[in-house]
Amino acid sequence: MSRRRQIYEGKAKILYEGPEPGTLIQYFKDDATAFNAQKKGTINGKGVLNNRISEHIFTLLGQIGVPHHFIRRLNMREQLIRQVEIIPIEVVVRNVAAGSLSKRLGIEEGEQLPRTIIEYFYKDDALGDPMITDEHIAAFGWASQEEMHDIADMAIRVNDFMCGLFAAVGIRLIDFKLEFGRIYDNEYSRVILADEISPDGCRLWDMKSNEKLDKDRFRRDLGGEVEAYQEVARRLGLMPEG
Ligand code: C5P
After folding, report:
1. Region class of 216: left (phi > 0), else alpha (psi between -120 and 50), else beta
2. Beta bridge partners of 131
3. Mind listing the pLDDT tens digit for each residue in 201-218?
4. Does ligand 1 have an atom closer than 6 angstroms to the CB of 217?
5. Number of C-beta neighbours around residue 47 at 10 A
6. Coil, helix or strand for 129?
7. Is the C-alpha dihedral spanning 168, 173, 179, 182 positive or negative?
8. Under 8 Å CB-to-CB from 39, ≥6 apart: which residues?
9. 3-state class percentages of the chain: helix first, strand second, coil last, to nearest 5
10. 79: CA distance to ligand 1 center in Å?
11. Alpha-carbon span 56 to 68, nearest angstrom
12. What is the ipTM for the molecules in this complex?
């Protein structure tokens, strides 16, 4: 555990001051929450797996030109990241109906969507992260039109890449959540991908059996959370035994 100054503690991660200005250390906890933290628990070893999975995906995204905050993994639970000004929007990309979309629109879980859908939610625990539109984002100044254009563009590139990455290992990417942040170069700012990409924020189904390999195992009391996260890491080639 790091002895550096703590900057922020979230539900699944802690941010500490980094070794250089403009950097932070992102620590991955084993804590799991669902339904706006009404359900709480621990998934032993989740933090280690998410740190590794997120490192892998961010590294590959960097190689295809998606700008992001990840610098390098420091140890089992920590990674060095660039400090960003977080944009208070959760960007959800959906390929297949599931979760809140199925509930809201009465579409059966597992139904392929006619096209990829991007949804925005306002990051506010007290309000339960309500769904918002571009209109709200523009009216309340949470992000500029140009930033939203970049965000949507990056979200689609991340989706295209991740659909292929997971399909190659027999996993269907149902949906996932992204977060973005601003970095400043003198008076200019630009938006980069932030937070993490892991089974905590993605729905991942085995292509043959439709078995859930993500946090829905915890949300829906299905059991086998650790094994599911390990299976994702194993298929991505990230487990020591291959
Ligand atoms: O619950 P919902 O169906 O809207 O979730 C869509 C996707 O976004 C899921 O993959 C879920 O794991 C992720 N998500 C998240 N954090 C939230 C809300 C959703 O990672 N606060």
Report:
1. alpha
2. 121
3. 999 999 999 999 999 999
4. no
5. 23
6. coil
7. positive
8. 33, 218, 219
9. 30, 35, 35
10. 23
11. 13
12. 0.99
pLDDT digits over 55-112, tens only? 999 999 999 999 999 999 999 999 999 999 999 999 999 999 999 999 999 999 999 9
For 155, residues 6+ apart whose C-beta sits below 8 A from its C-beta are: 91, 93, 118, 178
Q: Is 202 in the pocket of ligand 1 (CB under 6 A)?
A: yes
Q: The domain 85-225: what is its CATH number?
A: 3.30.470.20
Q: What count of residues does the chain have?
A: 242
Distance CA 98, CA 205 (A): 11
Q: Which CATH architecture has domain 6-82?
A: 2-Layer Sandwich (3.30)
Question: Domain extents for the chain?
Answer: 6-82, 85-225
- Listed in order, strand segments (DSSP E) in the chain are 6-9, 13-17, 23-28, 31-34, 39-42, 70-73, 78-82, 85-86, 89-96, 112-122, 131-132, 171-185, 188-194, 202-206
- Residue 130 near residue 124, CB atoms below 8 Å: yes
Question: What's the burial of 79, exposed, middle or buried (CB within 10 Å: 0-12/13-18/19+)?
Answer: buried
User: For ligand 1, is residue 97 a contact (CB within 6 Å)?
Assistant: no
Q: Tell me the pairing of strands 131-132 and 112-122.
A: antiparallel
- The alpha carbon of 183 and the centre of ligand 1 are apart by a number of angstroms equal to 25
The tokens describing 169, both together, are 């290992």
